[in-house]
User: Fold these one by one.
Assistant:
Number 1:
Amino acid sequence: PYDVLIVGGGPAGAAAAVYAARKGIRTGVAAERFGGQVNDTLAIENYISVLETDGPKFAAALEAHVKAYDVDVMNLQRADKLVPAAEPGGLIEVQLASGATLKSKTVILSTGARWRNVNVPGEQEYKNKGVAYCPHCDGPLFKGKDVAVIGGGNSGVEAAIDLAGVVRHVTVFEFMPELKADAVLVKKLKSLPNVTVHTHAQTMEITGADGKVNGLRYKDRKTEAEHLVPLQGVFVQIGLVPNTEWLKGTVELSRFGEVVVDAKGATSVPGVFAAGDCTTVPFKQIVIAAGDGAKAALGAFDALMRMPVG
Ligand code: FAD
């Protein structure tokens, strides 16, 4: 069995692995996709001390750092179930989709998050055929075209500002009466000549033809009138969903599905810690996830020291 088993190989899991391994304890990392969301990121300019890098480079550096230590890296492994220890100080089980079961004295959950779907007709059908989630990755594909951004929170407005510099025109659709993004972002957005904002706007359908997006149908919630805006791309920016479905009923989750953690990263289950985007820790960022992973590893080490001998 492991002393520390980390589930998830993004910045949080990688940092946890390095911190755990440096304590000389048996450390394993099981990850569905090592690197996590960073793999889908283009430029990273806010990881302190690294002026600029890109996602794939950063992900490779995470993996290299982890592999510099004696860590069992199990990539392409999805965890399906967590079984708490039968008695205090007993072994915790993590069951993998492959059928294997891993055992460990402590576990760190760092399964991150993913973009939320808008769940309207056309979204699934036209995914990667005009429906996108990552402006940094897919923005350039829409150069000279008209696109929509669904969502007027920080991520939506940031995406719209970003895309406005790349595409011909951006239309922002916000369900609520007002954009929810920070005032400075909204001000910036409204200063741009090629952006239109629709508030009170409920997206009804992403339309398409010949296997490509050709428009977005929305309902004006004030007038109940429906309108069709012709465009070639739709960026869905309505938040992140934590990858914690598999933990439901085992570990305490917030109403958003985030693993509830204390200041040391401990969860409601003894010996189980959590870090990064899958937790209640606010602000989902690389540097925060990494710091959080380090914290959870130290929390797990602290718990190991206190476990009864033999
Ligand atoms: P993740 O990176 O989500 O990693 C989760 C890990 O868990 C992955 O390895 C995943 O495969 C694995 N996993 C999930 N479920 C399971 C399971 N059941 N079993 C096993 N493994 C599982 N942040 C910044 O600071 N700067 C930026 O410029 C920036 N740009 C971004 C751009 C994009 C397009 C995206 C998507 C995010 C960006 N972020 C940025 C946010 C940043 O990527 C995240 O905050 C950070 O990656 C979170 O790290 P994490 O380790 O908590 O989770």
Note: Helices lie at 11-21, 55-67, 135-138, 154-164, 183-190, 286-305.
Number 2:
Amino acid sequence: MADTLPGTDDIQARALRALGRIGLDRPVGDGLRARTPITGGKLVDVPVTTPDAADRAVAEAHDAFRIWRTTPAPRRGELVRRLGDLLREHREDLADLITAEAGKIHSESLGEVQEMVDICDFAVGQSRQLYGRTIASERPGHRLAETWHPLGVVGVISAFNFPAAVWSWNTAIALVCGDTVVWKPSELTPLVSLAASHLLERAASDVGAPTAVHRLLLGDREVGERLVDDPRVALVSATGSTRMGREVGPRVAARFGRSLLELGGNNASVVGRSADLELALPGIVFAAAGTAGQRCTTLRRLIVHRDVADELLDRLTTAYRTLPIGDPFSDGTLVGPLITRSAADTMDRALARARDDGGTALVGGGRRFADVAPDAAYVEPSIVRMPEQTDVVREETFAPVLHVLTYDDFDEAIALNNAVPHGFSSSVFTRDQQEAERFLAADGSDCGIANVNVGTSGAEIGGAFGGEKETGGGRESGSDAWRGYMRRATNTVNYDDRLTLAQNVSFL
Ligand code: UN1
């Protein structure tokens, strides 16, 4: 691993080469600045979508929906299959752009593209499995069934930390479900968005699908608000902070639109007395320090049995001390930069509050590369031992701070896990089957994701992904999450020659 950072010029050249291979010229226009968190420098200016253009994009996607919804689902799958092929072909290019704009280490960027490929494969299979049920009717000569139909335009609002994968979970599923998509990505990652969107446009023209099945809106909040308030947008799938969800959810509901919210997490792992620490250690370090603590599934709280706390913390602090921090393009780096300097300031404030609450910082918390890259933010992931679960521990700080609490009794561990406003991801490290099952039971973890002997982050796409409470309740990706992107019609068909009323009602 190099202990220097690349120059902004090198990163810019690399990003432009990747864009070029994907088929895009250097963007012309302004309004939005693509920058790299690796140096904090400017990559290129990008044109923004005006509010009028945003309205037009929704209108076009709405028109395309009328064609797309009657295209047979397995044919719609062909578009997604082609997108998957192009993603495989441009895996490295898209990963380069993700690392350049989001600062993710290269292997995690490749992993993000792999998630995109995986969801495309999944969605292609799903395109032949949009099953409804046949239900036993109480009336003679009647058939009761349900049919799933396309819903409409899906508005996708996504965040900087998974700038491409979150779009693909929504888009691949929405497209096979017969919906069209308008995407408002984070303004921090415009180049990734242009690239992903262009690959889908290429796929559409390759298979002869209308290109307006997808539209990209680049801009800030004002553009996103267009999607939120437009009655032609049937579903708004929004990923971001709980604060954002608190605004989006009620606004979409006010017009009786649907929303799918994937918001913050304050995820915990319980480490039981019997835990295999050899296995727990890498699981914890990846979940807490990976992606520089910027996943919504990042491990933020460790709830450790008192008997193993000292040994585990010794080993954890040792591992943290040697974590390679630096250029995310460089092999061997495990922790790249935070997205902005203000994210690092937020981390500093959280650490100060934890100290005020009686916490002891065991490791980390300092800055790196401040002299060579004053506009970037490289932080040392930190572990803070807390006397109790105070306010700062119950809040989500989007940075690599791991708060550690100890417990004596397993009930107490579950109570601590659940005593936060969020309900995203959770896990238990234990070799005790009773503990594992209790953690997964109805009165165990209250999160959308509950794991055993695995960390909180890094979910596979095959499961439904999302969480409870202030995480927003939405589910995207695999399992039956596709149903959220369709409307259900219940059909009663009478093939008798008499009219029989339900519930034995007699009339006429
Ligand atoms: C996110 O941070 O918004 O489970 C998504 C994970 C990844 C997705 C994270 N598959 O950590």
Note: The pocket of 2-aminohexanedioic acid is lined by residues 115, 161-162, 166, 239, 295-297, 457-459 (CB under 6 Å).
